[in-house]
Design brief:
- The protein is of the alpha/beta class.
- Helix content is 31%, strand content 26%.
- The chain has an eight-stranded mixed beta sheet, with helices on both faces.
- The mean pLDDT is 87.
Length: 341
């Protein structure tokens, strides 16, 4: 497996201060993430809101600095004339060069587009910033043609397009500098189902055409299953399971993964359902050692929820059972999971 990006023990902790400005706790948004992103493939990251998916994306773009750990960039991306292959050690000029190789497609296309700019200026903006202004109009038309739009759309504003068309414009802009990696942060969640299918097929076509590597972040497991070659499941800033997509869907090992897969909408009325009981725990870790650990004993609320579904034949897991951290172990081949007792 030829890794284009290698993430090693990546941590991002945000301090929590009291009224006097003293650090009393840490929000562990990322807490020891290890991943390898294979060139030319689609790597999926899935998990509920607050699990650290977007923080991971922002750290990979070095929009925020990691607390510790490293992101190792392959020479295919950064070349060999740099001071270091570690993202956090790049100079400002080297970082600028690296960012040319990564395009970003955001969740909300309307929020990602400046409503006061025409489409020609929106798509050409990366070219202007990086000084690639030769034959720019033809380049913009080429980019729009690649995503199913045309020259007639150059002088319109974002509000004149449908949601699917706006997302195509965002994709065209992301491709402007011929990147090798696209980070896709829930690119279809704001779109109708029929339009989702069109955008996903477009992304697949573009990946084959330009040999792109995708990092695909999503809540939608059906989309993840369709798009991704490999998949990592995140919970509270940690990867709890990682495997090839087919293997993970057919043989999930971690209880949280099983519960996520059971929640996927299905026409099968006999499909097994697993409920997750209890509230999502806070990611805050107090510096006071007496408050430092997440509760691993069953809470009163969880006991009440268990009592309410007794005798109904419903399988369940409780949040408190997921709070104890176990090491990632190899299940088989390239399948890793945190085994819960």
């Amino acid at each position: 497996m030829r890794a284009i990006l290698t993430i090693k023990n990546l941590r991002k902790h945000f301090p929590v201060k009291n009224a006097w400005g003293t650090d009393v706790a840490l929000v562990k948004a990322l807490d020891g993430v290890d991943l390898k992103i294979e060139a030319g493939k689609t790597f999926g990251i899935v998990g509920e809101s607050g699990c650290g998916k977007t923080t991971l994306m922002r750290t990979l773009l070095r929009l925020i600095e990691p607390t510790s750990g490293s992101v190792v960039i392959s020479e295919e991306i950064i070349g060999d004339k740099v001071s270091s292959n570690n993202l956090e050690e790049l100079t400002s000029q080297e970082l600028r060069k690296f960012r040319r190789q990564i395009g970003v497609v955001f969740q909300d296309p309307m929020g990602a587009l400046n409503p006061r700019m025409i489409i020609k200026d929106i798509v050409s903006e990366p070219l202007v910033i990086h000084g690639k202004t030769d034959n720019m109009r033809n380049r913009v038309i080429e980019l729009l043609n690649n995503v199913g739009l045309g020259e007639e759309h150059l002088y319109r504003y974002p509000h004149e397009f449908s949601g699917g068309q706006r997302q195509r414009i965002v994709i065209a802009r992301a491709l402007a500098l011929d990147p090798k990696i696209l980070v896709l942060d829930e690119p279809t969640s704001a779109l109708d189902v029929s339009v989702q299918a069109q955008i996903l097929n477009l992304l697949n076509d573009l990946q084959k055409k330009y040999n792109l590597t995708y990092i695909f972040i999503s809540h939608d497991l059906s989309v993840i299953e369709y798009m991704c070659d490999r998949l990592a499941v995140m919970y509270l800033g940690r990867v709890v399971e990682e495997a090839n997509t087919e293997e993970l869907f057919s043989n999930p090992q971690h209880p949280y993964t099983k519960a996520l897969l059971s929640a996927t909408p299905s026409f099968d009325k006999n499909k097994e359902k697993i409920m997750i009981l209890g509230d999502v725990p806070s990611p805050i870790t107090y510096l006071d050692e007496s408050k430092a650990k997440l509760a691993t004993e069953m809470t009163e609320q969880e006991k009440l929820e268990i009592k309410s579904i007794e005798g109904k034949g419903i399988e369940y897991i409780v949040r408190s059972s997921l709070n104890e951290v176990f090491p990632l172990v190899r299940i088989s081949g390239e399948h890793y999971a945190r085994k819960v007792k």
